[in-house]
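Final paragraph of the annual report: two paired records, presented back to back.
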Amino acid sequence: MDIGYTAITQGYKKMPHSTNETFFLFCECGYGIVIINFEKYIVRPGSFISVYSDDYFLIDRLSEYAKIQIINLDDNLFDEVTARQSADFWNFWIDNRVLYMSAEEILQMHAWFLNVRWILSSTEELQMRDFMLRNQLSTLFTGIEVCCQDYMKEYHSKTDNNAHRILQRFWRLLVDNCKHEHEVRFYAEKLNITTHYLAKITRKAMGYSPKECIDWQRITEIKQELRNSHKSIKEIADNFGFESSSYLISYFRRHTGITPGNFRKNIIFTTK
């Protein structure tokens, strides 16, 4: 993880980038043009630029005295701190890769970076710093979603369709119910469709089956419990509706390659 000012070198401007990390650029001052997946976007003060892993990204031009702050996250961390974002927001954000903030929102961004710098400079205990930074990141992305509500309504009024609506409702149902409901049939019935049709929609949109989506969300939330609470494995198993601790351990290891206990012991949070 890396948060702070970044130097945009001439070489960086000229070479396209595709990495296994997700990063965000916040323009404090200056102007320019960036290219994301071959589409051009204007950069100006208050621009918040999202670049996901495997994106084609190129800085086409940037004024000499531009100041850019970066938030650089590995994919696993990004998934965890954005696990509660709505499907509506993700669909909007994928198609709007540069967000243009108001004067008030720019001030909030400055305050957010100041808080992060304070955490990095004053918190020596790694687990405490880990916890505080993750909370800061979750707050940031939730705040951005709140600020985009009006734009999202306008966007979805133009792009809405039946499959899109079903996928949005499915993901919201997942967020709200995955702790205790892990059968595809439950979600299909809530959506008033067949399990076959739900599978067709999720595979076309995301390349995953409904069951894989359910498991991904459950594992993400179990990781949050392991990382951010002192609950025992048995308590977490009970919270997620597992029959026993051993069943949770087996399920977690099957999807992650390690046990919940080892995951909790081996949490490593690297800040550059």
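The closing record of the year follows.
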Amino acid sequence: MTDLNTPIYDRAAAHGVTLEMQGAVAVVRLCRPAKRNALNDGLIEALRDVFQNLPAEAGAAVIHGEGDHFCAGLDLSELKERDAGEGIHHSRSWHVALNAVEQGRVPVVAALHGAVVGGGLELASACHIRVADDSTFFALPEGTRGIFVGGGGSVRIPKLIGAARMTDMMLTGRVYNAQDGERVGLSQYLVPAGTSLAKALELATRIATNAPLTNFALMHALPRIAEQPADHGFFTEALISSIAQAAPEAKARVRAFLEGKAAKVKKAD
């Protein structure tokens, strides 16, 4: 087991991000409840460090927020005046951190509740699955505050809901409640208030039992295939499919199914 009492994890905790292992699931918690888990540079760097150094035994991860909210976005009290060059480098540092979430080693499930606003929505959009509870609300107030998203939201959020809906959110300050958020694609699951973390852990535990190479293909190959021309996508699919099925674990799983030792797909309840 990985020792979680190391300088990396201790430094992350000092900046408001903790890591706990629950079986094969790395549970990452935002710990600034008095600030509604608003993002500052220290917390962003802590997220980067944690996701770049997940324990070897982690097969999936969950991100959740302490207190009444997942994340209320950028901590505006720490917003600094920057020239254009400084602003570019600052935004790119956030890209590195959230890329570590989206393009890391394991799939990430976001457990959402309360505010998922601004940078909080950018963080949630970097996760692979989003579970919202009934208390969740989504907003992008940057447009009404004279700023623009800088944590990758202009790339990731339109892939979830389309550019027109994101434009509307930023131009008008529109707020989506949990039900409408699920309807338009901001979350894939909607659960009763107070249960998003339990559902996220359930999903992550299941994901962690998948073949690691299949999870890697879904995280890294599928998004690229979706953006490729069809002939390129078919070729990439053929490559990654052959690589995945050649893995010893994949062969063992197929053999177990053929021998009647694996569960069959059943109709959902």
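The first strand starts at residue 17 and ends at 22. This concludes the annual technical report; the extension proposal builds directly on these records.
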